[in-house]
Specification:
Blueprint (H helix, E strand, L loop, with lengths): L2 H4 L14 H11 L10 H15 L7 H10 L17 E6 L5 H8 L2 E6 L4 H11 L10 H4 L8 E4 L15 H4 L3 H12 L3 E7 L9 H13 L8 E4 L7 E2 L1 E8 L37 H16 L8 E2 L5 E2 L12 E3 L21 E3 L2 H7 L12 H10 L3 H16 L1
Parallel strand pairs: 1-2, 1-3, 3-4, 6-9, 8-10
Antiparallel strand pairs: 4-7, 5-7, 10-11
Length: 414
């Protein structure tokens, strides 16, 4: 069988589920087909292509040559997505602990080309694929996953999870970070030597273990790896045009070859925004409205904590306020309840105790959480609400990332 027999039409393929690195390599190859980086994904991409063509043409024997030609010929269509790669990229970056692609949107907006992504969560990978046409590789702690990372990219991005450093501060180098996810980030930096690094984490990292954890991280980046790393900064999303009080620590670094020795984090955009700017335009489904019984439980819960001197409990955000940080777990959704009296049908659509409350108190929707994180409205949410809340709660605030990345790019472009 020849490539001509396959035909000139584009094949809109349904990627095989749970194929792991093979599917990831295939989509990465297609995203990098016109540049030299595709060589890092070629072997697995060819094998996956043979599987696809064999499935579509079961009577034909698909050779390696035909599969390779099909890849080069461009018969596969995976770029019919909201955020395709830029045609003429200005720089290259990799997206570690990618989540649903907050870093990727921000850097693509600045003209960047993502040449590698990794994320272990299955549902997050679904959302990533729906928006970028690419499946991230899996567990970055595995050497097999690291082996696909290409050379010669410019920026390493990582919103790495904050794991406890059991012996942080005792030896102060690579040994202190073994067994943590930061070690995997540091090892990739050591091997690939990118021009710049951009790390994001929770605000609490600054004071974790009396500051020793952050001290260890900075020591690895500065002394073991030799990067210029200015003092990290706590950045609040509300300062960059989204109505959310979300503080996160940003850590940036520059390779010695860049000659960068000064860095200034971006200033606030001084744009006043409130929840009204991200509120759903239409009537929200009844399922988002709280039941009378649940609302009663929340009030009792808050009162108990108040009597103990705690400030813990639910909170209702008015249209002229900004939201609390959206987070997954705990009281993440209950601390961001809103009033919305547009409801007309109080018939429950899910199993609830009591009735739908008549005060118009509801949870924010996943789309409102997306907007609070700065995701554009054409960002696809292909997963159930329970996963969507978790994904946006774990994500980065896109405008804050983009503003900081812009300052990084200015320096490495020189």
């Amino acid at each position: 069988m020849s490539i001509k027999e396959v035909g000139d039409i584009k094949l809109k393929i349904k990627l095989i589920e749970d194929e792991g690195d093979k599917e990831a390599a295939f989509t990465h190859y297609l995203h990098n087909r016109k540049n030299g980086i595709s060589r890092f994904y070629k072997k697995e991409a060819i094998e996956y292509t043979k599987e696809i063509l064999s499935y579509k043409y079961p009577e034909e024997e698909i050779s390696t040559g035909v599969a390779e030609e099909a890849l080069q010929y461009g018969i596969f269509e995976i770029f019919d997505v909201p955020f395709p790669p830029p045609e003429n990229p200005k720089f290259k970056f990799i997206d570690l602990f990618a989540g649903i692609g907050g870093f990727r949107i921000a850097l693509q907006n600045l003209g960047g080309k993502c040449v590698y992504s990794s994320e272990w969560d299955k549902e997050a990978k679904r959302t990533y694929k729906a928006n970028f046409g690419e499946i991230p590789f899996g567990d970055i702690t595995k050497e097999s996953t690291k082996s696909y990372i290409p050379d010669d990219f410019d920026i390493l991005c990582a919103g790495f999870p904050c794991q406890a450093f059991s012996i942080a501060g005792k030896r102060g180098g690579f040994e202190d970070t073994r067994g943590t996810l930061f070690f995997d980030v540091a090892e990739i930096i050591r091997r690939k030597q990118p021009k710049a690094i951009f790390l994001e984490n929770v605000k609490g990292l600054k004071n974790h273990d009396k500051g020793r954890t952050l001290e260890t991280i900075l020591n690895v980046l500065r002394n073991d790896l030799g990067y210029f790393v200015p003092e990290p900064k706590i950045i609040n999303a509300k300062d960059f045009g989204v109505p959310q009080n979300r503080e996160r620590i940003f850590i940036v670094g520059f390779h010695p070859k860049t000659g960068v020795s000064e860095f200034k984090y971006p200033e606030s955009v001084n744009r006043n925004v409130t929840f009204a700017d991200v509120k759903e335009e239409n009537v929200v489904p009844t399922k988002y409205y709280l039941s009378t019984q649940y609302l009663h439980t929340l009030r009792l819960h808050k009162e108990r904590h108040k009597n103990k001197g705690n400030g813990f409990g639910y909170e209702i955000i008015s249209d002229d306020q900004i939201a609390n940080a959206v987070v997954c777990g705990g009281m993440g959704r209950e601390r961001n309840l809103v009033y919305d009296d547009r409801i007309t049908d109080f018939t429950p659509t899910t199993k609830i105790k009591g009735e739908v409350n008549r005060q118009g108190i509801r949870r924010m929707t996943p789309r409102e959480w997306a907007r609070l994180q700065g995701f554009p409205d054409n960002f696809v949410i292909p997963v159930a609400d329970v996963y969507a809340y978790k994904q946006f709660g774990n994500s980065v605030a896109v405008p804050a990332i983009q503003a900081t990345a812009n300052e990084i790019i200015k320096l490495i472009s020189k």
